[in-house]
Amino acid sequence: MTRKIALITGASRGLGKSAALHLAAQGIDIIGTYHSAAGEAQAVVEQVQALGGRAAMLQLDVSRSDTFDGFVSEITTVLKDVFAQDHFDFLINNAGIGAHASFADTTEAQFDQLVAIQFKGPFFLTQKLLPLIRDGGRIINISSGLARFSLPGYAAYAAMKGAMEVLTRYQAKELGGRGITVNILAPGAIETDFGGGAVRDNRDLNAMVANNTALGRAGLPDDIGGAISILLADGSNWITGQRIEASGGMFL
Question: Do 227 and 17 meet the contact criterion of CB atoms below 8 Å apart?
Fold first, then answer.
């Protein structure tokens, strides 16, 4: 039986790394991307291999849409040489950055960077990869709880995630003819190095999150990796065009 393959952007650390390891534990092979942490990316490859899977890591800057044609060529070669396949099954658009600035203080440069990484990047990367995604495959985009509730300082970031939520519904509609499902997962506050590691390292912020979350704590990367693995499991093929929040019940 041919093993399924997941392509995860931003897979060298944080939520992407957790997703890679959860999926590998379910028998899914991994192609990951990293921005600059080549050593961390190689460590993930080795962890996937220790779980009995195959993995490859490629460098990608999702803000550089002009490089996507070359990246697609690299993926095509890796699929053939490493996995002896010509398509992959799952795409997880995970790569991103955090940004904290009030609406009044957000600069045009900050805004443009967020557009490039959080919206334009996944829009055109997914478009370029469509010929390599197997019919009946699945796409998961990543949003944020901040697209539902509002905390000062995240206007531009949350707006990009709101755009991704709308895009997800359109992708689900337009790709449904190929049997491809498209959903968007919205994490709550997670203890990672994202945004400078504030949720993880700032005790007061962590306590605020815990006090406003039904399950009484901030999220962990494995909470999101597990949620992604559920959305890619065999029993979830009738779910598409949906926003699924994995926040432990934050700000209910």
Answer: no
The sign one gets for the Cα dihedral 118, 168, 242, 11 is negative
Residue 174 has pLDDT above 90, yes or no: yes
**What span, in angstroms and rounded, lies between the C-alpha atoms of 166 and 236?**
21
Give the closest residue to 165 by CA, choosing from 149, 179, 182, 152: 182
- Tell if the pTM clears 0.70, that is, is over it: yes
- Sequence-distant (≥ 6) Cβ neighbours of residue 110 within 8 angstroms: 99, 101, 156
Other beta carbons within 10 angstroms of residue 38's beta carbon come to: 12
Q: Is the pLDDT of residue 82 over 80?
A: yes
How many CB atoms lie under 10 A from the CB of residue 84? Answer: 9
* Structural domains of the chain sorted by starting position, each given as residue range(s) with its CATH number in brackets: 5-243 (3.40.50.720)
Are 49 and 78 in contact by the 8 Å Cβ rule? The answer is: no
Residue 92, strand partner residues: 8, 140
User: Is 157 among the catalytic positions?
Assistant: yes
Token pair, residue 98, equals 């955090």
Q: Which of 34, 154, 157, 170 is catalytic?
A: 157
